[in-house]
Amino acid sequence: MARRIKEEAEQTRARILASALDLFSSNGYSRTTLTDVASRLGMTKGAVYWHFTSKEALLMALVDEMQEKFSRQIDRLMPKDELTFTAVADMMTRNAGEILEDAKGRAFFLLLNEQVQWTSASMEKIRTELLQDERCGPWHAFKHAVANDIRAGRVRAGVNPDRVAHACLALWSGLVHARIAGFMSEGLVETLGEAFACVWKSIRIAEPASA
Known about the structure:
The protein is an all-alpha fold. It is built from ten helices and no strands. α1 packs across α2 (34-41). It is elongated.
C-alpha cells in the first residue's frame, strides 16, 4: 500500500513538472502561476503546493532534473577526474544533436534561454545555485577537463580553465539557440564540432613537427 502511494506521488510530481515545463517555455516563467499549472492538470493549487512550495522550487526541480541527466552522461563518459576537453566537447556536441530531436530538451533549453529573466532579484538564488553546482554541469565539465589537460601536459599552462569553459558554453548555447530558432541552416553537430576544434587548437600544446 505504502509503495503504491509513493509511486502515485512520484507520478503526480512528474506530471506537475511536465506541465510546468510546457507552460514556462511557452508562456514565460514570470507570466505563469502555480494556479495555471494546477488548472492545466485539473488539480487544485493546494495539491501542487503539496509537492512544490513555490514556483521557484518548481523551476529548481526542473533544473535539477536536467543537471542529473547531464551528470549521468558525464559519468558514462569517464570519471570526473579524468575528463578531457576533447571528450567533453564531443559529448556536448552529441548532446546538442539530442536536444534537437527531443521536444522536452528543446522546451527546457528555450525556457532557460528565453523565458526566464535571470537579471530579476527573484532569480538570484537559483542563478547562484546553478553557478555553484559542482555536480558537473556543462560549465564545470569544461572547466575540470581543461584543468586536467593542463596537468597532463596537453594544454598550455597559462590557459585559464574558467574562461575557456565560459567560451565553450557560450559557443554551445549560441549555436543550439540559432539552430532551434531557424537562424542557422548548417548542421548543428558539424558546426559545433568545428567550433570546439578551433578552441582546442588555440589552447593545446602543439605536437612537435615530425622530422
